[in-house]
Amino acid sequence: MKIVIILIVGFFLLAICYFSYLAYQSNKKTPPGLSNNQLQHCPNTPNCLNSEFPDDSSHYIDALGYENKTIDEIRNIIRSSIESTGGSIINIQENYIAATYTSKLFRYVDDFETRIDHENTLIHFRSASRVGKSDFGANKKRILAIKNKIGLETNNK
């Protein structure tokens, strides 16, 4: 019986160390940013969503359409939506905003990025976990919450 308890405690401690190491690794990375004026492709893990590439159906989520707003108005709406959902903005450019979200338990960092396509009146999203494979739906929930906060959808292209 003692051996079983020691093994269980040992396994538990190893698991804690492993998840803490992953959290440490996630804190060392940065958002990928734009490439050719688009958000980066998702990696081959299921913990990323992106509205830029509809052909990548396993990672695709719809962009958000808007009308009758300037790029400054849209950027301010996105910024306040990110902040109100617990995100920390780390980079703002004319048509791009990068933010991070940190989980409560192990302090994992996820990247959230938006690109404003003013020509086509679309807001593109990319939300991805920096480490691991599963996100338990957190990135999808995050994008949907931001879309809901933005509340501008008039045409979902």
Q: Top keywords for this entry?
A:
157 residues, alpha+beta, TATA-Binding Protein, two-stranded antiparallel sheet, elongated
Written account of the structure:
Strand 5 (88-92) and strand 6 form a beta hairpin. Strands 3, 4, 5, 6, 7 and 8 form a six-stranded antiparallel β-sheet that branches. The chain has helices spanning 2-28, 71-84, 138-150, and strands at 34-35, 38-39, 48-50, 64-65, 88-92, 96-102, 109-117, 122-129. The protein has one domain (2-32, 43-150): TATA-Binding Protein (2-Layer Sandwich). Helix content is 34%, strand content 24%. The protein is built from three helices and eight strands. It is an alpha+beta fold.
Question: In brief, what are we looking at here?
Answer:
Strands 3, 4, 5, 6, 7 and 8 form a six-stranded antiparallel β-sheet that branches. Strands 1-2 form a two-stranded antiparallel ribbon. Strand 5 and strand 6 form a beta hairpin. The protein has a single domain, classed as TATA-Binding Protein, CATH 3.30.310.80.
Topology overview:
Elements: H1 2-28, E1 34-35, E2 38-39, E3 48-50, E4 64-65, H2 71-84, E5 88-92, E6 96-102, E7 109-117, E8 122-129, H3 138-150
Antiparallel strand pairs: 1-2, 3-8, 4-8, 5-6, 6-7, 7-8
Helix pairs in contact: 2-3
- Large-scale geometry: elongated
Largest pleated sheet: 6 strands, antiparallel
Could you say what the CATH topology is called?
A: TATA-Binding Protein
CATH superfamily: Kinase associated domain 1, KA1
Rg calculated over all Cα atoms: 18 Å
Q: Please give the alpha-carbon distance between the first and last residues.
A: 61 Å
Which segments are poorly predicted (pLDDT under 50) over 5 or more consecutive residues?
153-157
- Number of E strands: 8
Tally of individual helices: 3
The proportion of residues in beta strands is 15-25%
What is the class in the CATH system? Alpha Beta
- Write down the overall mean pLDDT: 88
Assigned CATH architecture: 2-Layer Sandwich
Q: How many structurally independent domains?
A: 1
The SSE order reads HEEEEHEEEEH
